[in-house]
Amino acid sequence: MPFRLIPSFLFYCYVNGITPGPANLCSLYAALNYGKERALKQWKGLFTGFAIVALVSVFLNYFLGNVLGDYVKWLSYIGAAYLIWLAVHTVRSAVGAEKDADENAEKDAEKNCNFFTGLLVQLTNVKIILFCMTALSSFVLPYSRSFFSLLLVGVFLPFTGPICNLAWLFAGAKLQKLFYEHRKVINWIMAGALVLCAVSLVWG
After folding, report:
1. In the chain, what are the domain boundaries?
2. Whole-number mean pLDDT of the chain?
3. What is the pTM of this model?
């Protein structure tokens, strides 16, 4: 990648990382519902999932190049279906918000906010799959077919999106008190945001 493209590449990474998406919304939701410590456990899964996607993208771009472009788009339907499932789960939490907030709280946190839920979110997150594939095919392949060049960028990518996830996570932790005062309304808003993400994946 030419040095002149590095600012554009970094800006591309920042915009894709900080804008709303499944991982950012899940980080925010986890911090609002379960607190910072529990959300950080899920974040480790988000980071690991992002790293796996980035490294797989390196190999796919190296061996298959831009041939994958049309096929990657089909993954949007899988990602959209998973986002709808998350939205339904969020709405169910909203309906149950009228019950005691502490009822089965720890059991709920163990089930819905852990390393593996974060990992699953990223492995089905079409936004980051397309992000990684596009970053490599647009900023590296036109200038170098070197596996090392692809790998260097691929190793860097997990330090973009997941770092932006932390901004959403810590914002959620700060707003946790507000969330408990308006739990039901915020859960519905979060569910709606997830549905919009799903719609944008399929019809965007």
Report:
1. 22-203
2. 76
3. 0.70
